[in-house]
Amino acid sequence: MLLEVKDLRVYYGKIEALRGISLQVDAGEIVCLIGANGAGKTTTLKTISGLRKVSHGSVTFKGGDITSMPGHQRVTLGLCQSPEGRGIFPGMTVMENLEMGAYSRKKKESEIIAADFERVFGLFPRLSERRKQVAGTMSGGEQQMIAIGRALMAAPDLLLLDEPSMGLAPKLVTQIFEIIREINSQGTTVLLVEQNATQALSVSNRAYVLETGEITRSAPASELLNDDFIRVAYLGE
Amino acid sequence: MHNLIIQFWPSVIDGTTTGAIYALMALGYTLVYGVLRLINFAHSEVFMVGTFASLFTLHALGITHAPGGIAAIGVFILITLAAMAASGLVAVGVERVAYRPLRKRNSTSLANLISAIGMSFFLQEVFALRYGRDLIPFPRVLQKNVLFHIGTGVVRSDKLLVVVGALVMMFILDRFVNGTRLGRGIRAVAQDPSTAMLMGVNIDRVITLTFLLGGIMAGAAAMLYGTFYEVTQYNIGFVIGIKGFTAAVLGGIGNIRGALIGGFALGLIETFGGAIFHAQWVDVVAFSVLVLVLLVRPTGILGENLQRARA
Ligand SMILES: Nc1ncnc2c1ncn2[C@@H]1O[C@H](COP(=O)(O)OP(=O)(O)OP(=O)(O)O)[C@@H](O)[C@H]1O
Ligand SMILES: [Mg+2]
Question: Between chains, do B199 and A104 touch, taking CB under 8 Å as contact?
Answer without folding.
Answer: yes
